[in-house]
Fold each of these.
Amino acid sequence: MAEPHRVTRRAELIASLRSNVSPSKWSTWFSGVHIELTEQTLDVVAPSDFHSHWLQDHYRELIASLASDYLGTDVAVRYLIASPPLKEFEFPAIPVPPSSDRSPEAAVPDSSLERSSRYLDKYVFDNFVVGPSNRLALAAAMAVAEKPGQHYNPLFLYGGAGLGKTHLLYAIGHSALAIRPDTSIRCISSETFFNNFVDGIRRKRMDDFKHRYRTIDLLLLDDVQFFQGKEQVLEELFHTFNALHQYDKQIVLTCDRPPKDLGIEERLRSRFQWGLLADIGPPDVETRLAILRRYAGYAPKQIPDAVLDFIAQHITDNIRELEGALTKVTAFAALAQEPITLELAHEQLADLIPTPSGQPPTAAAIIAVVAASYGVSLTDMEGPSRREPLVTARQIAMYLCRTLTELSLPKIGKHLGGRDHSTVLHGVKKITRLIAADPQFAHRIADLSKKLGIT
Ligand code: ADP
Ligand code: MG
């Protein structure tokens, strides 16, 4: 194949050029220079006009003679200036975090531009809570952002869904730009890389594609597991990798698994392991709490510690879900104009948080789940109103408390706004009858039990 051959020739030419230049001159004059080969041309792409002239004054002959040695006498050498630095970020589609806006409606961004800037603000190192599960990954990411290409190249970040890989990837980009605004960065999902590649082939514009991906300082590529089984794009990634790595341009990759578990060719898998592998594990409970506290700080209303504890205890292995849970609770409270309480958290998160099997649900959890299912508020469950579906919801809660917990009739009554034991008994009997008579109703009760972790 012509392509790998050209890559080798290019590598040899660069090695030879390097051996003819002193190390200090090389790092001053050649480190920012990119050399591209096509069939008929050798392009020397310098970062500035000044660089280009200096190279031509001092190395024109050397470069010309190497070009004819390695590529033949009819190759033309062109001196070009790199286009202005790239700062391309693609914004991931994820739920909007709790924000400092007044109401939940206002927290939903109304334009994609606004959404972009929100993500820009959010995915930075300052917003990343560190704990034992992500300390190495964060340290490596910060080192790479500070000196791209010099520490760990590539940096390969891997871990399960929702653990902060994309967050760190973007943070590297933002921080590298803040430190050196002229850094040219491409920060994209593997899917976009793939789409650009396919597009390049379809339009016969592969040179554009190559130029786009091989003349940058920092390639941040998210979710490389996407490439598995896509042989052609893997081949292209291989060459992109080589082209960047050769000039000490930084590559950062994220993946949902370590390289050894990736179904890709060995030559690429081994390159992924050349630098540093850093895994991100599920956060421990202190880290989860710290993350929740950070988000709670943005919420318009104070969120009781008991609610944060409850969420941190129950949502253990996905930070996106952790945030989602908090958003759900705060948004519901704001919409329903109810205070944020533990009961409300139980009610809103019943789907996400099944009671561990073997343990009976609490009365509060039962009441919350029933209230949510019937669309009534917890205050009304305890209140005096006798309208439907409130009465039925209340009686179902009585029935479930009676059958799923050890609570006495008076205790159940107390949980439901201080009703007496005969009211509770009446409710339990009525629901028992309905279950026996109406299969659809029985099904609904079974569903509620399932939500409470009873199977
Ligand atoms: P992944 O790419 O690993 O699936 P993301 O980077 O998209 O996960 O993270 C999911 C959500 O959790 C994002 O909103 C991110 O900001 C947040 N997040 C992840 N890790 C942390 C952390 N250590 N501190 C604060 N927020 C975090
Ligand atoms: Mg991600």
Amino acid sequence: MTIEPYYIELIKSGEPVAFPTETVYGLGADAFNTKAIEKVFKAKGRPSDNPLIVHISDPVQINDFAKEIPESVNILIQEFWPGPLTLVLKKKPIVLDKITAGLNTVALRMPKHKLALDLIAKTGPLVAPSANKSGQPSPTKANHVFEDFGDTVSIIDGGTTEVGLESTVLDVSRPSPMILRPGSISKEEIEAVLGSTVLIDDSEKAKPKSPGQKYSHYKPKAEVRWLNPKDDLRDPSTLFLLINGNKKQNNIINYDQEFDRLARELYDRFRQADIEKYKTVVIEPFDERNNVAIIPALLNRIGKAIS
Ligand code: TXA
Ligand code: MG
């Protein structure tokens, strides 16, 4: 699987192109072209105070964007790149203001998807927010991108994404690393590798350090809420996502404790609920457990869809 030259030319001519990563589809644009980046903000309807992640294809490119890189970054890259870990670092002056929304930091990530790496290797670094209209769930299939943008955006189809939730955003520009957005790489995994404590940004509602966290993402039109004992599973206007059930019924999806599958399918289920005109999506509650890294990210995204 390699990228057709057509898409590389499009990016080089300043047009956005949607492409798959291992987390969700991104809407890519040349990280050194202000006009191309403006097109991404405009197409998404994204507030200009919400900064973008720069995607690179080789760890050495960190040095093109970031300065004062702490020793811990080498360890993190060794362990987690390419992969769903975004690092926030002090930025170099060369980084376009459009990307960072005026912050003195820049977010960098080297994705793991073969098509993403091939594309970026040929175009150079790309900004890539999730390829959805602002307020819609992130796209995990090429068709989701098409639902939001129609044929106004070119899409590289790489099938269904592997993780299904956006990358872990880790701020390493501060003395103690802090998770700004949970993802499939967990606090515990990062702590194990660093041998030190990692903080979690819990200032979400007040003034989140990751500006994107303050916007109501991940929200389908259907109401999302947790299951309660009074719910009637026969209610045809409700789509049930059950962790422990085994009932076969059109409006019931059984996950049988497979949290990675729930993460992979969550946004697709939100979109399905709207397309099939369900009024409500009801999810069976579950708790964090030590050996399932994805659960805090799932609870974060479901929490946002509920609030
Ligand atoms: O998995 C992902 O990260 C996907 C794929 C396409 O790579 N991308 C993605 O991008 O989720 P986006 O733009 O939807 O979310 C980026 C998040 C936002 O919450 C944004 O506020 C935060 O990263 N962010 C970007 N730059 C930042 C910075 N300098 N400091 C703090 N947060 C930053
Ligand atoms: Mg997004």
Amino acid sequence: MQRYFVDIVNNEVILSQDDVFHLTKVMRCKVNDNIEVVNKATHTAYLAVIDSISPLKIHIQEPILKESELEKDVSIFFALAKSDKNEFVIQKATELGAKRVVLFQGKRSVVKFSNSDFSRKEARYISIAKEASEQCHREYIPEIKYVKSIKGVKEYLEDINLLAYELEAGKATDIESELKEHKSVSIIIGPEGGFDESEVSFLKELGFKLVSLGKRILRCETAAVYALSVISYLLEK
Ligand code: SAM
């Protein structure tokens, strides 16, 4: 069943213009059809019924009690990567339950963002996160942030912060116990060129713990999906 993030004002369900178009023209909904809506303000999901198409009128039928968020806050720092890898990681991080994606300019990032680049892409990134949240039936849309360099990660630290470092590849890692002991977790993934030693030193001073993502050197986008898959599996098993 289709899910939309909406505003609910005085019991009136208000969809964005894009979502009205999607529901009426793409999904060709009919009167008495059910949809799911999530109140953006309270992150509460409801079963709703379509009362009329033009104008679109919807009423709330009942709350949906099944929640799909992870029990702990999980965020990912992802070094800017080439082409649509950033969009891919935003979509997959959303499906895997992340509450925040922070893009950063790694020293060895091939892609360089000018000051205006992120703001030009931000709306698209947010739209990708919103659509992915609706598709996987979440109650939250992850925040998408950008920091110019690795120094900016200080603003978004979690209770435990893990540094997926390629030179740790194959060494023993105990992400599971770190998760058990802490309220929230972040994982940082370097760019195609990997982490610069000065970045690793800076992150270690911030308290990041080095972790391996296995014996093989993964592409940055694979590493992001692997790390978030491990974390969400461990939190939900
Ligand atoms: N250029 C680096 C090299 O050849 O060693 C590889 C960088 S890798 C493509 C991009 C990022 O993915 C790394 O900076 C790291 O964050 C993560 N990564 C990939 N494989 C990993 C592994 N086995 N253990 C930990 N992190 C890994």
